């Protein structure tokens, strides 16, 4: 099923705040673990590669923090591009996203 078409099953169209927080906590913990692993492996790999990996992980952590703020202010799950609900399937895969697939394509 495409992530840019609405689902027709009875599953809620939005994640609950609790579900969103759980997914975001998991995402944050995973990224922090990755950052630690990159730090530990840094001695054996090229410094430029390690720096790029750290930058990417830090960017995602910032996006996770921004998603927590959207949960708090009630805008989590709404696309910043078109203001429509982001399909729950997309949020399950990428819980920190702030765009639906069509708007992400346009932004990218």
Provide a descriptive summary of the structure in words:
The protein has 108 residues and is mainly α. The chain has a single domain (17-107), classed as Up-down Bundle (Four Helix Bundle (Hemerythrin (Met), subunit A)), CATH 1.20.120.910. 60% of the residues lie in helices and 0% in strands. The chain is built from 4 helices and no strands. It has helices at 17-41, 47-73, 88-93, 101-107. The longest helix has 27 residues, at 47-73. It is globular and about 45 Å long.
Number of E strands: 0
N-to-C order of helices and strands? HHHH
Largest sheet report: none
Radius of gyration: 16 Å
Low-confidence stretches: 1-11
Alpha carbon gap, first and last residue: 22 Å
**CATH structural architecture:** Up-down Bundle
Overall form: globular
Mean pLDDT, to the nearest integer, reads 85
| CATH fourth-tier homologous superfamily | DksA, coiled-coil domain
Q: CATH topology, which one?
A: Four Helix Bundle (Hemerythrin (Met), subunit A)
Biased composition (Basic and acidic residues): 1-30
Domain Zinc finger DksA/TraR C4-type: 74-106
Protein name: TraR/DksA C4-type zinc finger protein
Pfam families: zf-dskA_traR
């Amino acid at each position: 099923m495409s992530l840019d078409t609405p689902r027709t099953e009875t599953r809620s169209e939005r994640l609950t705040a609790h579900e969103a927080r759980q997914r975001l906590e998991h995402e944050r913990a995973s990224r922090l673990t990755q950052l630690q692993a990159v730090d530990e492996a840094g001695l054996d790999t090229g410094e430029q590669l390690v720096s790029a990996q750290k930058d990417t992980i830090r960017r995602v952590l910032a996006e996770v923090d921004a998603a927590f703020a959207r949960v708090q202010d009630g805008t989590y799950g709404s696309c910043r591009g078109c203001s429509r609900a982001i399909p729950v399937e997309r949020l399950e895969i990428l819980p920190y996203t702030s765009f639906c697939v069509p708007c992400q394509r346009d932004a990218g």
